[in-house]
Amino acid sequence: ISTRLYSIQSSLEYRINQADSIINETNTHCQSSRLKITEAIASLREIVNTHERNMLEKISTIEQEQKKQLEDFKNSLKNELQNLNMQKATFEILVTNNNHTKILQIKKGFDNYIHKTKGTLKSLQISTRTEFSVQGLDQLQLLKQKIEQYGRYIEIPAYHNSELEQFISQNRKKQKFNLNNRNLNDSDMKILVDILKESTVRKTFFF
Length: 207
Description:
This protein folds into two domains: about 1-155; about 155-205, no CATH class. Helix 1 (about 1-95) runs antiparallel to helix 2 (about 100-125). The chain is rod-shaped, with a radius of gyration of 45 Å. The longest helix is centred in the first third of the chain and has 95 residues, at about 1-95. The protein has a two-stranded parallel sheet with strand order 1-2. The chain has about 210 residues and is mostly helical. Helix 5 (about 185-200) links the parallel strand 1 and strand 2 (about 205). Helix content is about 75%, strand content about 5%. Keywords: Coiled coil.
């Protein structure tokens, strides 16, 4: 009776230790998985943020260049308009005072101004705005779908070796297991270790 009670105790303790081991493995695996996901998404997020920043900076640079060209053009026109207003004011004062003699004296100056201003207006051509467009954003939906497909957390099917499991089942009560020429991998060895831990019969493996 004592031996059987001890056997039950050993079996219970083994299962408790096994549960603790699986809990630790679960914690380690989940922490590792979280770290992988965090690092991968952080890298992707950095790429997206950098690309967004570069695109916005390019748009701002082009915007500033185009607006500066137009502002310079507008300022030149304002200067010409200011000069025109001064010429008009001078002419209107002379006309108001009926100073025809003075008008005739400075007529050549008005003619020179008009000729010069016409030439200036011909040279002041408004710059044509270069057209830009945002392209490729329609591909982001496809990229989003690919990210959702590639970044997944899926269940891995339990490993089975039907031939080895059948062999163990047929020889479970034997003390010796002849495993020669079976080409066992790490997962197969884990199956054997678990059988050895659970068995109440001392076993010897031959490879």
